[in-house]
Design brief:
The structure holds two protein chains of two kinds. By secondary structure, chain A is mainly α. Chain A is 71% helix and 4% strand. Chain A contains eleven helices and four strands; from the N terminus they run ααααβββααααβααα. In chain A, the strands form two sheets. A two-stranded antiparallel ribbon of chain A has the order 1-4. A two-stranded antiparallel sheet of chain A has the order 2-3. In chain A, a hairpin with a 2-residue loop joins strand 2 and strand 3. In chain A, helix 1 packs antiparallel against helix 10 and helix 2 packs across helix 8. By secondary structure, chain B is of the alpha/beta class. Chain B has a single domain, classed as 3-Layer(aba) Sandwich (Rossmann fold). The two termini of chain B are 30 Å apart. Classes of the chains: A mainly alpha, B alpha/beta. The interface between A and B is medium-sized, with 20 and 27 residues. Chain A: It holds the Pfam family BPD_transp_2. Chain A: It is found in: Cell membrane. Chain A: Belongs to the binding-protein-dependent transport system permease family. LivHM subfamily. Chain A: This is Branched-chain amino acid ABC transporter permease.
Chain lengths: 298, 237
């Protein structure tokens, strides 16, 4: 029983992590038609910010957590301002290549100026312990991650339904021109979307780093790949789809991890992708995606 | 109030608007007529800054707005309800109207305007919390107009407000435009529905192949079968 509960909370936390990352990708994609493959570097940069802060002036590891989130937000906004804004009106492939460019530049800058080898990231010791929850011993980091995901998604829903910026982001996902016709600054909406995506990435980064305990220049690749798969699975462009896709992907991974016999466990990711592929044959637009409707006339 | 001089709009090598000059005075309703593909939509889109003006000058209230981005033009009090309505389908009527007023800083006046327009378009009050995609075409057009009005414009351009709507609804929308005129709004209306549009407009411009081929009082154009036939291909109004 304890094992089942442990695996369930594990599945929720991994699914939550993927959902946070996928939401960050999806919110930018829905507005700009840009798959920001540099999204994973936000995690990396958050990690390095924690490493440097710990090595220099921050003694209390709890303070490192907001530093990580804040760094990811600022980095995401800088990506937009420096890299993506100049190519905003270019064809979609240009944006995609720009994203890869940003990713490569950051990875290599870290290799050259910091180190290739992983650097330790201190996190508060209580995050790595376990806590007793209804008689079961569960890892603190997983409970926090599940809780943080729920809070972040609830916050995102509030932002998208209660604030003008959120309404404008939802509207811009469908018809950016008309949003501008309302007098709303395109730059602000897009910068806002990047800030939100940075916040979600930073939040996920805290937990990824708490698990790994170290940061290295290439660590952003796997998370962004998982987030991308989650978006495709959920239906690209749909925020609800991204969250659902992330959750399903995480649960699938954990369930396979827990149930596969040990001699095929190494093929876990291959099996996951096979199942995702099968799901896409069944529903080519993703679980919650809809076929884009074309307007009569632009 | 709005003045265009020698305005051109190009899409690559294709010239959609060729040196159009046009004036709209304060308090007027001006009709912009012409067949499909004459460049009417391109012209109003370029005025509001959605598509770039390739040549010529646009001034609004005496200020050159030729290169001003769309947000800035809307902030100066000139806006457009685009062709095909383009309401935010996934958002509720309330949210659509709220976005229309998103840049306003005067909550009291905004609230007052909201109530005014909900009285003017009672169907929007009735469907206030419904998703815009559940509205009929005519209701969506009213929402698009009300949404544009929520930004408190002094001049509104309407691109084909009657497109695809039943005659009864079209009449209602034109009536509403006359009401808006009484409250001091200046309007430029793009229409294919020439005879109807001329009935409530003060002056008219006819566009063909990107150039102005006629300008004059709306009633003169409407009264002349010859002119109507020549420019608009509608013999009997």
């Amino acid at each position: 029983m304890e094992y089942v509960i442990q695996q369930a909370i594990n599945a929720l936390s991994v699914g939550g992590e993927y959902a946070l990352l996928a939401l960050g990708l999806a919110i930018v994609f829905s507005i700009m038609n840009l798959v920001n493959f540099a999204h994973g570097e936000l995690i990396t940069l958050g990690g390095y910010a924690m490493f440097f802060a710990a090595a220099t002036f921050v003694g209390n590891p709890v303070l490192l957590l907001p530093i990580c989130v804040l760094t990811a937000v600022v980095a995401a906004m800088l990506f937009e301002r420096i890299a993506f804004r100049p190519v905003r009106n270019a064809p979609a492939t240009t944006g995609l290549l720009t994203a890869f460019g940003v990713s490569i530049v950051i990875q290599n800058a870290l290799v050259i100026f910091v180190a290739t080898r992983p650097k330790p990231v201190p996190v508060p010791s209580w995050m790595q312990g376990t806590m007793s929850f209804g008689g079961f011993n569960l890892p603190v980091v997983q409970i926090l991650e599940t809780g943080a995901t729920v809070c972040a998604v609830a916050g995102l829903v509030l932002l998208l339904t209660r604030t003008n910026l959120g309404l404008a982001m939802r509207a811009a996902a469908k018809d950016f021109t008309v949003v501008r016709l309302m007098g709303i600054q395109a730059n602000r909406v897009i910068l806002g979307a990047f800030a939100v995506s940075g916040f979600l990435a930073g939040l996920a980064a805290v937990f990824i780093l708490a698990r790994r305990g170290a940061v290295d220049p290439l660590m952003g690749f796997t998370p962004v790949l998982k987030a991308f798969v989650a978006c495709v699975l959920g239906g690209f462009g749909s925020l609800l789809g991204a969250a659902a896709g992330g959750l399903v992907l995480g649960i699938l991974e954990v369930v396979l991890q827990a149930t596969l016999p040990s001699d095929v466990a190494g093929f876990r990711d291959a099996i996951v992708f096979l199942l995702v592929g099968a799901a896409l044959i069944w529903r080519p637009t993703g679980l919650l995606g809809t076929r884009a409707e074309l307007g009569d006339k632009e | 109030m709005l003045s265009l001089s020698d305005v051109s709009v190009n899409y690559g090598v294709i010239q959609a608007v060729r040196g159009v000059s046009l004036n709209v005075e304060e308090g007027e309703i001006v009709a912009l007529l012409g067949p499909n593909g004459a460049g009417k939509t391109s012209l109003v889109s370029s005025v509001v800054g959605i598509v770039p003006v390739s040549g010529g000058r646009v001034t609004f209230k005496g200020e050159d707005i030729t290169r001003v981005p769309v947000e800035g033009i809307v902030a100066r009090g000139l806006t457009l309800t685009p062709e095909g309505r383009r309401v935010f389908a996934g958002l509720s009527v309330a949210e659509n109207l709220r976005l229309g007023a998103a840049t306003r800083k005067d909550p009291v006046a905004t609230e007052r305007d909201l109530n005014t327009y909900l009285d003017m378009f009672p169907i929007l009050k009735e469907r206030y919390h419904q998703t815009a995609s559940t509205l009929s075409g005519g209701e969506q057009q009213m929402l698009a107009i009300a949404r544009a009005l929520m930004s408190a414009p002094t001049m509104l351009m309407l691109d084909e407000p009657s497109l695809g709507l039943a005659p009864r609804i079209v009449d209602r929308i034109f009536e509403l435009m006359l009401e808006m005129k009484k409250s001091g709004l200046t309007m430029l209306v793009v229409e294919q529905n020439a005879s109807e549009a001329l009935a409530f407009s003060d002056r008219a411009y006819v566009l063909a192949s990107g150039s102005v081929v006629y300008e004059g009082a709306a009633k003169d154009l409407a009264a002349s079968d010859q002119l109507m036939e020549a420019y608009l291909g509608t013999g009997v109004a």
